[in-house]
Amino acid sequence: MTFILASNNIEKLAELRDILSESGLSVISQGEAGVTLDVEETGGTFFENAYLKAEAAMKATGLPAIADDSGLIVPALSGVLGVRSKRYGGEGLDDAGRNALLLKSLSSEEHRAAEFVSSIVCVFPNGDVISAEGACNGSILYEPRGHGGFGYDPVFFVTGMEKSIAELSPREKNQVSHRGKALRSFEPKLREYLMKAGKTTC
Prior knowledge:
Shape: globular
Order of helices and strands: EHEHEHEEEEHH
Radius of gyration: 17 Å
Low-confidence stretches: none
């Protein structure tokens, strides 16, 4: 069985494909399926936004679709980020600009605890839905560190790793990241579903 990865984010697609492929799943991007989608993320939760993206890709291709919605939660900023993380500061900002704005907003803040959260949702053509969530705890650094990853990775210090996410190797990141944890929780649920439905993953 082939699954569509519902995302236009090249870096996110690489992470999703890397982890899911290790489980033996056949996955292609919506671009590889000849589909271009730009889904408006109007949900109030990570699950709702992931569902909207997966449902749109499923309807466009007729294949089961997997989507991720994730974001950064910083309690000191009282809900400013969350599901709006990638729109923080307005549409005109790139990753570096959003990181700079985040650091400026926390410049006088001692309490810099943060959490990355990811929601993975798979929508099947028959309407069935499988989902899982993962979280990565840490704190916001005072300046960017590392050159890997994307988004807020350079300013997110991972608890227990003594590194920013951007300083981790891809393998290390997949082990500790919110998306990696969500996918590892999602994978057995998907396998159980496929077994009960009498389907295979290839």
